[in-house]
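Handout, page 2. Input:
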Amino acid sequence: MSVRPAAPPTHRINVSPASLDGDFLIGPLETLGPGPWAGRPHRHDFVELVLVTGGAGFHHIDTESIAIAAPQLFLIAPGQLHHWEETAPVTGTIVLFGEDFLTGEGGPEAGLPGWTNARLRPTDAQRRRLERVFAELRAELALPDALQARAIRTLLSLLLLQLRRLAPDPTAGPSRGLSAAFERLVRERASATLTVAECAKALGITPGHLAETVGQQAGRSPGELIRAEVVREAQRLLARTELSCAQIAARLGFDDASYFSRFFRRECGLTPTAFRRAQLGIAA
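Output:
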């Protein structure tokens, strides 16, 4: 049985030579994955890719609860809330890497896929191909030389390409770089006070250029994407923590809890309290 925390902790990759100083780690899910803390909602400042090959229970990601049914592949982006609820020990492989690590030499041109909390069902042939890449990643992690980081980024690029074959990313394209950078910035700074002008300044471009480019690449305006991320974060905190609506409103930059309630209802069709009750299965 999972426990909802008062506020979700953020975990980081331990800095050590075995993890490329906190940039990358791969290993068995049994030792790197669900542990004493993994049954409580938490988030990471890194990307987590999990290939589940056995076990039973549920993987809770943001507001979704997914039954574990191996073989299964999960991608959890930085900032997402997730936890495991096992009824039988979950086995498989887990790959952890920092998003900034991808930007070095050998990294993927398109960066992280535009989809998040993906749960994919690879065929046996696809699973074997993924496991071959995992084997190469493990081998490279054991070869600490001047080319190690580049080789690992190249293999991660191949791994992300394999994922796109499993679930094509509709937002992927040769010119998606600015949109991806904007979406990451919004994810990291999600707040009711965040403006398009602030984001444009942080990215070194004009608000007009940001609006035009993001509209073309993401199919939505920058303002819409900011509001959508604020809603997602509010939903995570309502569903997976014990924080009060007033506390959530304050965390998200709302000066007034009643304004937060009106904003949430306008965007979701439910009040924050009604949404939380629905997530917990409590009758109105």
